[in-house]
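User: Can you predict the 3D structure for this chain?
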Amino acid sequence: MISYEFPINERIRTLLRLEELYIRTSKLVNREEALDHHMALLGIFEIMEVASRADLKSDLLQELERQRQTLAGLRNNPHISEDALDLVLNEIESTHTRLLEMTGKFGQYLRENEWLMAIKQRVSIPGGVCEFDLPSYHYWRKQSPERRRADLERWLTPLLPIKHGLDIVLKLLRDSAKSSHYTAKQGCFQQMSGGKVVQMLKVTLPDDMPAVPELSANRYAINIRFIVPSTSGERAKVIDSDLDFTLSYCNL
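Assistant: Here is the predicted structure, written as structure tokens:
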């Protein structure tokens, strides 16, 4: 099956973007090639920009505290494993503490590194990090993978408390999913929301189904149309047959 997650508000949209950036950057850091480490450094710059939104840290702290209180209310519930509950609550508490320990502007230590900021400025120019533009960066890329990886981990590690916080929030959000099966008539589906608030919708299709969902939603209605996947540049075409799919509603 292949799933497509659609955030319904800006906060979840930011968390999903950051999750993608953290996953991609961590994978690239663990590789060996200089080009991979160049891309990892660009990922760190992107994380710094996206996560520097002033209220992200306070949003995560508030959401973690809200989830901690909700989960704590499940104690002594015979349908809930006390060990599993303790594990989640301890994880929330330790992440909450690490977030509180973060002081100052997110990634400020990176902004104070003139060498990194020179690279960040140049990468916005197409082809702007050639060896004649930044000889010291060329030298760094010629160092051993271990040396480059140690530097990347030193720059990335202080950014990880935000990742741990969003990992918990997104896991709880995904675990909250309530799924239903529907059929899109002639490739289109509409459902009235009736004022029901959701934070994320997930559309799931079989792997071999040649269709891509496009979704728009507000507090009044959910609209989905399934288009024929194409890389030719032609205008998107809506599937002209009925199509079965699963729609999941996620809300904390």
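The beta strands are 2-7, 178-184, 188-192, 200-205, 212-217, 221-227, 243-250. The first strand starts at residue 2 and ends at 7.
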